[in-house]
């Protein structure tokens, strides 16, 4: 089981730029022009930046998440934010620093949400003594599974569908957004609300 304290320590110690330098990061020579073009809605310039930095951000995310799907999700989130706030790119002096700050924050948010999921499982285990036999563990695991499913069933239809696509079928936020015809930002927000509700539901029903 993932330890919440170690997750928090990892989040606090994230330093994206040194890692990407070690992975072979180099800046684009015409970044100022690219930023201006992206701010004006130029998709070709956006694609150029994505192709140059996407793989490096993925590699950095893998260092911390060690999960292919989740690392790809971080890349998608980073570049979604870049495009969403493209008009502000005119004020960015160093694109690489700007990208890596966003990447760091996305990884931090991901780890924090992962800690929320972990805590929901731990809540159930905290109500039983540590020195129990394997039968007790199986009972508790079954109880958790039942509570988790009940919490999922209580989610609003769209939120439940998003949760199931992400957590049960392993789809990325981008894939879910395309499948449901909504934005990746909406998917992200719905997942955050789903996880918060599930944690609260389990906490309420084990006390």
Describe this structure in a few short sentences.
The chain has 207 residues and is mostly helical.
Q: What is the rounded distance between the termini? A: 22 Å
Low-confidence stretches: 1-14, 19-23, 126-137
Number of helix segments? 10
Radius of gyration, Cα only, in angstroms? 20 Å
Tally the beta strands.
Answer: 0
Class from helix and strand fractions: mainly alpha
Give helix and strand order, one letter per element, not per position: HHHHHHHHHH
Largest sheet: none
Give the overall silhouette.
elongated
Please state the average pLDDT score.
Answer: 75
What is the beta-strand fraction? under 5%
Residues in helices, as a percent range: over 70%
Overview of the molecule:
The chain is mainly α. 77% of the residues lie in helices and 0% in strands.
Keywords:
single chain, 207 residues, mainly alpha, 10 helices
What is the element layout, followed by pairings?
Elements: H1 4-12, H2 16-22, H3 31-39, H4 43-65, H5 68-84, H6 95-126, H7 134-153, H8 157-168, H9 173-180, H10 184-205
Helix pairs in contact: 1-6, 3-4, 4-5, 4-6, 5-6, 6-10, 7-10, 8-10, 9-10
């Amino acid at each position: 089981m993932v330890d919440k304290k170690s997750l928090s320590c990892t989040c606090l110690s994230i330093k994206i730029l040194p890692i990407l330098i070690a992975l072979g990061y180099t800046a684009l020579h015409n970044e100022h022009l690219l930023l201006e073009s992206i701010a004006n809605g130029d998709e070709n310039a956006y694609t150029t930046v994505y192709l140059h930095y996407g793989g490096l951000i993925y590699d950095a995310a893998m260092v911390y998440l060690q999960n292919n799907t989740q690392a790809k999700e971080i890349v998608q989130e980073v570049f979604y934010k870049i495009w969403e706030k493209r008009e502000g790119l005119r004020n960015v002096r160093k694109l690489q620093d700007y990208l890596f700050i966003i990447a760091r924050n996305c990884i931090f948010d991901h780890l924090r949400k992962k800690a929320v999921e972990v805590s929901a499982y731990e809540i159930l285990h905290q109500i039983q003594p540590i020195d129990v036999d394997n039968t007790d563990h199986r009972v508790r695991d079954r109880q958790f599974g039942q509570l988790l499913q009940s919490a999922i069933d209580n989610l609003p239809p769209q939120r439940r569908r998003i949760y199931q696509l992400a957590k049960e079928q392993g789809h990325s936020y981008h894939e879910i957004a395309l499948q449901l015809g909504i934005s990746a930002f909406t998917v992200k927000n719905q997942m955050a609300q789903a996880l918060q509700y599930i944690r609260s539901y389990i906490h309420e029903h084990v006390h």
